[in-house]
Design brief:
Helix content is 39%, strand content 0%. It has 100 residues and is an all-alpha fold. The two termini are 19 Å apart.
Length: 100
C-alpha cells in the first residue's frame, strides 16, 4: 500500500501502472522491473533513453528514480528525483508486483 501511495503521489501524473495502458507523458510502468529500457510499444522514447540499453533492475531503478537526468542525461523526463530512501524502497517493492 505504501508503494502504491508513492506512485500515486510521485509518478501517476505521467505514468500509468496497468498492463497495455496507453502512454500518458511516459510509458506504463507495468512490468518495468526486469524490462529492457525503451521497449514499451507505442511510446516515443528519447534518443538518450534508446541508447541507454540494459534492463531495469532494482538497483538501476533506484539510481534512475533518485535523479533521472543525472543517470541518463538528455532524456525528456523532467522529474527531479525521489530522495526519501524509504519511499523509494516502497515504490520499487510495489513496482515489482506489476507483472503477469
Amino acid at each position: 500500500a505504501a508503494g502504491r501511495r508513492v506512485f500515486q503521489q510521485q509518478c501517476s501524473t505521467c505514468h500509468a501502472a496497468q498492463k497495455g495502458a496507453a502512454p500518458i507523458l511516459g510509458p506504463t510502468l507495468w512490468g518495468v522491473v526486469g524490462r529492457t529500457t525503451a521497449t514499451v510499444p507505442g511510446f516515443n522514447y528519447s534518443t538518450a533513453m534508446k541508447a541507454a540499453g540494459g534492463a531495469w533492475s532494482e538497483e538501476r531503478l533506484r539510481t534512475y528514480i533518485a535523479g533521472p537526468q543525472k543517470f541518463i542525461p538528455g532524456i525528456r523526463m523532467t522529474y527531479p528525483g525521489l530522495k526519501d530512501p524509504r519511499q523509494m524502497d516502497d515504490l520499487i517493492e510495489w513496482l515489482k508486483t506489476l507483472k503477469g
